[in-house]
Amino acid sequence: MNKLDGISVFVQVNDSGSYAAAGRVLGVTASAIGKAIVRLEARMGIRLFHRNNRSIGLTPEGVVFLDHCRRIMAELASAEARLSSVHATPSGKLRVSAPVVSDRWNRVFLQFMARFPDIDLDVSYTNRIVDLVEEGYDVVLRIGPLQDSRLLTRRLGVFSLRLVAAPAYLERRGVPQTIEDLLGHACLRNRNVSSRRIDNWPLGPDKAHVNAGLSNKLVADHYAMLLMATLDGLGIACLPSFWADEHIESGALRPLLADQTANQRAVSAVWPGGPGFPVKLAAFVDFMAQNLPAMLR
């Protein structure tokens, strides 16, 4: 087996949980799988798996190597898809899970549909963490850290959370000059749909202490509600830039404490691992990588 074969065997063993199960997927014997892993470990000079008669698990070195292998396989699949797309038109149904987002983000989806008219887009909006394998999604757009080792990912862009308030509110209650000043203000807070906890604001190294002292004038699990309340002058909110920026540009909202609350959040495309990279999926991921960053900024 060549180096790429060894990588694919390694990833399949991890995903399948045993040599025998990986062999069934790849159409070879468990013995052949075991020999491929031994050769790979010998070539690298490290142990990739802890093994005993009942189970198999990654070593710390194996965890690091797995992440690199998935990236290599994703890049290879993407390259193959791009080359094949020269002769294939992206088409068919594409099921996408996306966070609840603003109109700016939605316009990127509509631009994708205009660019690829033969793809039927099925978008499901939710802020909870979905299991795309179990729920049958082709791809998920996800915010924040990624942990599921069964999945392949591509980082699409970044955005920031911004503290904002309407001019009318600030005229009435005053402009906070420090993070501690927020403790005396009406705060409009987001509840995380997955954890059911109120999200912390990016308030510096002592954020946990300061967040605990913030008021909860309004708590909602939908940014559209928080944006509306902020525009109505009901308090200060912490909104993603793609919700807040057009209202900052128009003057309807004012940014607060920007130099004291610098932060960054990543947006990634996530899809199931496995052989092949459908042309329609490659088209979607590439289009988002090219067009989403400008909207996020």
The whole-angstrom Rg is 23 Å
Strands of the biggest beta sheet: in what spatial order?
4-3-5-12-6
Helices and strands, in order, run as HHHEEHEHEHEEEHEHEHEHEEH
In what range is the share of β-strand residues?
15-25%
Superfamily at the CATH H level of the largest domain? Periplasmic binding protein-like II
How many distinct beta strands?
12
Question: CATH architecture of the largest domain, please?
Answer: 3-Layer(aba) Sandwich
Low-confidence stretches at least 5 residues in length (pLDDT < 50)? none
End-to-end separation: 45 Å
What does this structure look like?
The longest helix is centred in the N-terminal third of the chain and has 25 residues, at 60-84. This protein is an alpha/beta fold and 297 residues long. Strand 1 and strand 2 form a beta hairpin. It has helices spanning 3-16, 19-26, 30-44, 60-84, 103-115, 132-135, 167-173, 207-213, 223-231, 241-250, 279-296; strands spanning 49-51, 56-58, 92-98, 119-125, 139-143, 151-159, 161-165, 187-190, 218-220, 236-240, 254-256, 265-272. The strands form 3 sheets. It has a 5-stranded mixed β-sheet with strand order 4-3-5-12-6. A 5-stranded mixed β-sheet has the order 9-8-10-7-11. It has 11 helices and 12 strands. The model has no long low-confidence stretch (mean pLDDT 87). The chain is elongated, with a radius of gyration of 23 Å. Helix 1 packs across helix 3, helix 2 packs across helix 3 and helix 5 runs antiparallel to helix 11. The chain has 3 domains: 3-81, Arc Repressor Mutant, subunit A (Orthogonal Bundle); 89-159 and 265-296, 3-Layer(aba) Sandwich (D-Maltodextrin-Binding Protein, domain 2); 161-260, D-Maltodextrin-Binding Protein, domain 2 (3-Layer(aba) Sandwich), CATH 3.40.190.10.
